[in-house]
């Protein structure tokens, strides 16, 4: 990919389903960023991302071997070295870390948010799609694509829109 992508779609919880792959590949996006639990990233165009809990080791190998594992992409990182950060896990105690009615979250993510104070933290590992703040950090749960949830990020304008699509 040449230059920075402006129209970015963030997804998580994406099953390997041909209808869903075709659906997202038709989205108006320059880049897709996966926040984990993406079962077949090799079929999503212009994809980079991190892993979650549900992928097998072949997904990690694919992302590493093809340089699609996102550690840092312009102002977006998974290591908290930039102002825009992605994480599979929500911060511990967050209002968005909920799966099947159970609260989930990572103390490590909370500590990194508090010490690094990124402008935006996008996270997955949640059935909830919502935005809130931890101090000055906007925390955005993108939700789970298996329920139609995803997020749009305009890197040029710095705008985020939570979205939902009706699944086939």
Question: How would you characterize this protein structure?
Answer:
The protein is of the alpha/beta class. The protein has one domain (5-155): 4-Layer Sandwich (Purple Acid Phosphatase, chain A, domain 2). Helix content is 16%, strand content 32%. The strands form three sheets. The protein has a six-stranded mixed β-sheet with strand order 4-5-6-9-11-10. A hairpin with a 2-residue loop joins strand 4 and strand 5. The protein is globular, with a radius of gyration of 15 Å. The termini are far apart. This is Metallophosphoesterase TT1561-like domain-containing protein. Residues 52-165 form the Metallophosphoesterase TT1561-like domain. It comes from Saccharolobus islandicus (strain M.14.25 / Kamchatka #1) (Sulfolobus islandicus). InterPro entries: Metallo-depent_PP-like, TT1561-like. It holds the Pfam family Metallophos_3.
Rough outline: globular
Q: Compute the separation of the termini in Å.
A: 30 Å
Number of domains: 1
State the name of the first-level CATH class: Alpha Beta
Sketch the topology as an H/E string, one letter per element.
EHEEHEEEEEHEEEEE
What do we call the CATH topology? Purple Acid Phosphatase, chain A, domain 2
Strand order of the largest sheet: 4-5-6-9-11-10
Beta-strand residue fraction: 25-35%
Rg, Cα atoms, Å:
15 Å
Share in helix: 10-25%
Protein name: Metallophosphoesterase TT1561-like domain-containing protein
InterPro entries: Metallo-depent_PP-like (IPR029052), TT1561-like (IPR029461)
Pfam families: Metallophos_3 (PF14582)
Domain Metallophosphoesterase TT1561-like: 52-165
């Amino acid at each position: 990919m040449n230059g920075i992508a402006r129209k970015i779609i963030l997804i998580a919880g994406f099953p390997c389903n041909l209808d869903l792959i075709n659906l997202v590949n038709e989205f108006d996006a320059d880049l897709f960023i996966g926040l984990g639990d993406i079962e077949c990233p090799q079929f999503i165009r212009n994809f980079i991302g991190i892993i979650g809990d549900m992928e097998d080791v072949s997904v990690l190998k694919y992302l590493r071997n093809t340089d699609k594992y996102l550690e840092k992409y312009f102002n977006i990182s998974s290591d908290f070295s930039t102002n825009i950060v992605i994480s599979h896990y929500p911060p511990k105690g967050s209002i968005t870390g909920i799966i099947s009615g159970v609260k989930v979250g990572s103390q490590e993510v909370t500590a990194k948010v508090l010490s690094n104070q990124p402008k935006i933290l996008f996270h997955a590992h949640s059935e909830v799609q919502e935005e809130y703040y931890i101090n000055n950090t906007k925390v955005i749960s993108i939700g789970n694509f298996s329920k139609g949830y995803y997020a749009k990020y305009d890197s040029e304008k710095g705008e985020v829109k939570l979205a939902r699509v009706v699944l086939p």
